[in-house]
């Protein structure tokens, strides 16, 4: 992973990420996909499925193809200053990316083999909205619960772009099989948050700071119900990392850190990460993420 030191001008791009959850005998697991090595953003890294907000996401007819009205989605997002159509579009973007990147469709319709039909038509060149309309699919937007909002600093450390990303949590629908698409993503895994952090620490996988800090937070929950209940109980925190160099080392600090302008913590775990050993690490090592 290489560090960027250029300041990026312009507004960050709206985007959405979905953290899919499932319960197993070993505890709560999350679904991670490995981005294609040639990807312009976080190539080769493991991430939660997600992507940029498209204009078509905001244009989807919520009355016909969503089980929550646009104004209800806007309220659920807890962002009064965000336009209603953008808020609606973020929910749609998260659900669209969940299908495009890992084949999971949060939707209902009276069709057998629905996922295969949707995939076939999209592969043939039809747009997501058009396919939903033709097949009578209603997106299950209530399955998504806002978890956090991450805005890339003016000096992005691991990309050359800025994003305003809303993270949602959702229990994977029953009888749905999540798998990578072999286009944008090349590998995938269901894994306990603590195990993902351990694999990162042992140089087995690569991840970026938002994923690392999110996994640290999720490692505190025993099951999906507990994580979803926590998300519903409080508005999603706004996390705007502050990036700076200290003695030649890139540092990212988060709300609650002495160097951050926001004094209240936004999440459990360390309040800063340092770029050492060609990756970001907390000062106390792996235990800082897990305690």
Write up this protein:
With 291 residues, the protein is α+β, with helices and mostly antiparallel strands. The protein has helices at residues 55-59, 62-65, 70-77, 84-102, 114-123, 128-135, 193-201, 209-218, 224-233, 286-290, and strands at 13-24, 27-35, 46-47, 50-52, 107-108, 138-139, 145-151, 163-171, 185-191, 238-239, 242-246, 249-253, 272-276, 279-281. It has 10 helices and 14 strands. The strands form 3 sheets. Strands 1, 2, 3, 4, 7, 8, 9 and 10 form an 8-stranded mixed sheet that branches. A 4-stranded antiparallel sheet has the order 11-12-13-14, with no helix packed on it. The mean pLDDT is 92. Helix content is 30%, strand content 25%. It is globular, with a radius of gyration of 19 Å. The chain has one domain (13-236): Nucleoside Triphosphate Pyrophosphohydrolase (Alpha-Beta Complex).
Structural class: alpha+beta
Q: Which value, in Å, is the CA radius of gyration?
A: 19 Å
CATH class: Alpha Beta
CATH homologous superfamily assignment:
Nucleoside Triphosphate Pyrophosphohydrolase
Terminal CA distance reads 26 Å
Shape: globular
Low-confidence stretches: none
Largest β-sheet summary: 8 strands, mixed
The CATH topology turns out to be Nucleoside Triphosphate Pyrophosphohydrolase
Number of helices: 10
The share of residues in helices is: 25-40%
Second-tier CATH architecture = Alpha-Beta Complex
Order of helices and strands: EEEEHHHHEHHEEEEHHHEEEEEH
Query: Please, how many domains?
Result: 1
The number of strands is 14
Summary tags:
8-stranded mixed sheet, Nucleoside Triphosphate Pyrophosphohydrolase, 10 helices, 291 residues, 30% helix, globular, alpha+beta
């Amino acid at each position: 992973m290489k560090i960027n030191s250029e300041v990026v001008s312009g507004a960050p791009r709206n985007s959405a990420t979905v953290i899919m959850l499932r319960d197993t005998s070993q505890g709560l697991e999350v679904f991670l996909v490995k981005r294609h090595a040639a990807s312009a953003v976080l190539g080769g890294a493991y991430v939660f499925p997600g992507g940029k907000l498209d204009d078509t996401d905001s244009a989807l007819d919520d009355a016909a193809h969503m089980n929550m009205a646009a104004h209800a989605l806007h309220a659920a997002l807890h962002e009064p200053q965000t336009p209603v159509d953008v808020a609606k579009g973020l929910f749609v973007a998260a659900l669209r990316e969940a299908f495009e990147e890992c084949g999971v469709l949060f939707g209902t319709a009276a069709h057998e083999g629905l996922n295969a039909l949707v995939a076939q038509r999209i592969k043939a060149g039809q747009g997501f909205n058009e396919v939903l309309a033709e097949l009578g699919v209603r997106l299950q937007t209530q399955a998504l619960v806002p978890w956090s909002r991450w805005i890339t600093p003016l000096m992005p450390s691991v990309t050359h772009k800025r994003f305003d990303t809303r993270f949602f949590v959702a229990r994977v629908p029953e009888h749905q099989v999540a798998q990578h698409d072999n286009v944008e993503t090349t590998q995938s895994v269901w894994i306990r948050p603590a195990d993902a952090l351990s694999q990162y620490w042992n140089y087995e996988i690569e991840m970026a700071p938002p994923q690392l800090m999110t996994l640290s937070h999720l490692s505190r929950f025993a099951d999906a119900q507990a994580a979803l209940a926590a998300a519903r109980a409080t508005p999603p925190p706004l996390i705007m990392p502050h990036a700076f160099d200290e003695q030649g080392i890139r540092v990212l600090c988060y709300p609650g850190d002495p160097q951050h302008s926001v004094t209240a913590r936004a999440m459990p775990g360390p309040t800063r990460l340092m770029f050492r050993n060609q990756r970001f690490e907390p000062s106390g090592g792996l235990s800082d993420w897990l305690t």
